[in-house]
Write a structure and sequence with these properties.
heterodimer, A: alpha/beta, Rossmann fold, 12 helices, globular, B: mainly alpha, MetI-like fold, 2 domains, 13 helices, 76% helix, binds adenosine-5'-diphosphate, binds iron/sulfur cluster, binds magnesium ion, Peptide ABC transporter ATP-binding protein (chain A), ATP binding (chain A), transport (chain A), ATP-binding (chain A), P-loop_NTPase (chain A)
């Protein structure tokens, strides 16, 4: 394996759901990569396909259908793996942290047993006592006070923040090389969010795991991520280094997201939410899916779908007129 | 926990008293006269009117209903539920000796029902909308729609008369006995009663498991690398079976009704058989006693169910 090969390579991923109203193209040609040890933020409005993309990596989209694309992990096509091999990767080399810690843990099994299960599923030789000790260690590592006592408690005896800590302990239990966190703080109290994000950072440093951090909060991306992937209507519309994307965005949607951010140097009434709303994924508009809301849209955008293409060093955009943004985007957008 | 049990028992005592009053008044409000029922119509001659009057007075049936109730109640609190009008045996003894067979029949049937419903409902849920699921649905609907007395008669015809594999009636062979003998007598009525209960329970297990399978924690278990068997068995099924406790409890009175019918068909010496005879002869004390026993059975089951919840569901605290 060469050093330049990415850890995770999602290429032209498409996932569909058959519903009563028709086929929902939840993910429609998404491509991005994650390198070893880096933190990649995935941003986009709600419904842009972030969760479905994340879930597809481990093959956890139950009712949906993979309509195309490949997901390679360390060069292996995850979609083509036999079920048993995929299971050994789930929770082993790739671990997930879900959005809602209130429902993501089994209510009738103690926290300790749920962590022990994660450990023993991936190390059949691990004795019960040793697994228990390791689980308590993990709970202590994620900042759980009185870990040995907490080990025996049930999820309902934990606060939301503590449950998410337990989820993180479970996710890092087997030393994953990729951690997927799907909006890990969205369901938590604002005061707890920062703590859990800090913990995520600690966990990442501890395990050296690459992290795919899904969020709709650009501030979180700015603070934690090395690179950012911007999704819109099931596609990746821009990806690149965080500083580059934030200072020199090359997609009008990214520009819109950045302008809608509340900032200290701007009055609240200067907020510019992107007008309009995301398109229906049942019948996405032809051409560029952003064209109904795009201030730069013109005829070509309505017919020709813009491919994701390089617009700079390790910087990609799916806009026909990405280069025009270099002139249009005022320096005001800088951090 | 102890406080909870005590409180429940106190509530149940009130329920008992109310059931006692209700049934006591109801049986006496029903048309007909228990004393006339004792006498065969062809024996009813001119002179028997005097006998009837004497017997009514002896049984206290001429007193005002409230006086009768008061007398019965004072005896009942000491555990004396009176004596049968017909056999003159104490009601408590009659019922107690028949409680065992009924409980044996019902608990075996319940065991059979669960042994069918849990695996079948699980397979139907996991393989939903496939042939197996449709077959399970058809089977469930089938056993609900066919009356159990009919199934009982068919089974007796087939397994007792034609094949000669199983005894057709009673609980043991006269003179014989032993566990194996009772088991042979038990199989048919218990299986039929269990089958009837398995229908709705299978549907319930299927529905509740389908709900659980889409729960977030199931996805977590999959994301950890759990196998399908583990994810369903250790996680989803465990959660889906907790509310099954309630469903089973709700079904107990209905199973009891089914048991009454099957006890007739198979001459099973249970409370149901006794009760049917008592109703036919308007044997008031036995009817009232039977109602109280049934109520006790149901109330005890409910209490056990609540305690079971506290054991299997850590979120439930009984206080
Ligand atoms: N099980 C499903 N059935 C039908 N549509 C779904 C299902 N899951 C997701 N979708 C649709 O796919 C789209 C993307 O969803 P999701 O990935 O959850 O978005 P995000 O995480 O970015 O908010 C949404 O429009 C959603 O309605
Ligand atoms: S391709 Fe056209 S519509 Fe799409 S983002 Fe670029 S300018 Fe806007
Ligand atoms: Mg989401």
């Amino acid at each position: 394996m060469t050093q330049s090969e990415p850890l995770l390579e999602v290429d032209d991923l498409a996932v569909e759901f058959r519903t009563d109203e028709g086929v929902v193209k939840a993910v429609d040609g998404a491509s991005f990569t994650v390198d070893r040890g880096e933190i990649v933020g995935v941003v986009g409005e709600s419904g842009s396909g972030k969760s479905v993309t994340a879930m597809s990596i481990l093959g956890l989209v139950k009712s949906g259908r993979r309509a195309g694309g490949t997901i390679r992990f360390r060069g292996r096509d995850l979609g083509a793996l036999p079920a048993k091999e995929l299971r050994s990767i789930r929770g082993g080399e790739i671990a997930m942290i879900f959005q809602d810690p209130m429902t993501a843990l089994n209510p009738v099994v103690t926290i300790g047993r749920q962590i022990v299960e994660a450990l023993r599923l991936h190390d059949k030789k691990l004795a019960k006592g040793a697994a228990r000790d390791r689980a308590i260690e993990l709970l202590a590592l994620v900042g759980m006070p009185d870990a040995a006592a907490r080990f025996r408690q049930y999820p309902h005896e934990f606060s939301g923040g503590m449950r998410q800590r337990a989820m993180i302990a479970m996710a890092i239990a087997n030393g994953p090389s990729l951690l997927i966190a799907d909006e890990p703080t969205t369901a938590l109290d604002v005061t707890i969010q920062a703590q859990v994000l800090d913990l995520l950072k600690v966990a990442q440093q501890e395990t050296q795991a690459a992290t795919l951090l899904i969020t709709h909060d650009l501030g979180v991306v700015a603070e934690l991520a090395d690179r950012v992937v911007v999704m819109y209507a099931g596609r990746v519309v821009e990806q690149g280094d965080v500083i580059t994307v934030f200072t020199e965005p090359r997609h009008p949607y990214t520009v819109g997201l950045l302008e809608s951010l509340p900032r200290l140097d701007r009055d609240v009434d200067e907020l510019h939410p992107i007008p309009g709303s995301p398109p229906s994924l049942l019948a996405p508009p032809p051409g560029c899916p952003f064209h109904p809301r795009c201030p730069l849209a013109r005829d070509r955008c309505r017919t020709e779908r813009p491919p994701l293409r390089a617009v700079g060093a390790a910087h990609h955009s799916a806009c026909h007129f990405a280069e025009e943004l270099a002139a249009v985007v005022p320096t005001e957008v800088t951090r | 926990m102890a406080a909870f049990v005590v409180r429940r028992i106190l509530v149940n005592i009130v329920v008992f008293i109310l059931i006692g009053i209700g049934v006591f008044l109801l049986v006496r409000a029903a048309p007909g006269d228990p004393v006339r029922m004792m006498i065969r119509p062809e024996d009813l001659q001119e002179g028997s009117e005097g006998f009837i009057q004497a017997r009514r007075a002896e049984l206290g049936l001429d007193d005002p209903v409230l006086v009768q109730y008061g007398r019965w109640f004072l005896d009942a609190v000491t555990g004396d539920l009176g004596s049968s009008f017909i056999s003159r045996e104490p009601v408590s003894g009659l019922l107690l000796e028949r409680l065992g067979p009924t409980v044996l029949l019902m608990s075996t049937a319940l065991g059979i029902a669960l042994l069918i419903a849990i695996p079948l409902g699980t397979i139907a849920a996991v393989r939903r909308n496939t042939g197996v699921d449709y077959a399970a649905a058809a089977l469930s609907l089938g056993v609900i729609s066919v009356p159990s007395f009919f199934l009982g008669i068919v089974a007796i015809y087939l397994f007792s008369l034609q094949l000669g594999w199983l005894p057709s009636s009673g609980m043991s062979t006269p003179g014989g006995g032993g566990g194996a003998d009772i088991l042979e007598h038990l199989i048919m009525p218990a299986a039929i009663l269990g089958l009837a209960a398995a229908g709705p329970l299978t549907r319930y297990v299927r529905g509740s498991l389908i709900d659980e399978l889409s729960a977030d924690y199931v996805r977590t278990a999959e994301a950890k690398g759990g196998s399908p068997v583990r994810v369903v068995g250790r996680h989803a099924l465990r959660n889906s079976l907790i509310p099954l406790i309630t469903i089973v409890m709700i079904n107990i009175p209905q199973m009891l009704a089914g048991a009454v019918v099957l006890e007739q068909v198979f001459a099973w010496p249970g409370m149901g058989q006794l009760a049917v005879r008592a109703v036919n002869t308007q044997d008031y004390p036995v009817i009232v006693g039977f109602a109280l026993y049934v109520a006790a059975l149901v109330l005890i089951c409910n209490l056990l169910a609540d305690l079971a919840y506290a054991v299997v569901d850590p979120r439930v605290k009984v206080t």
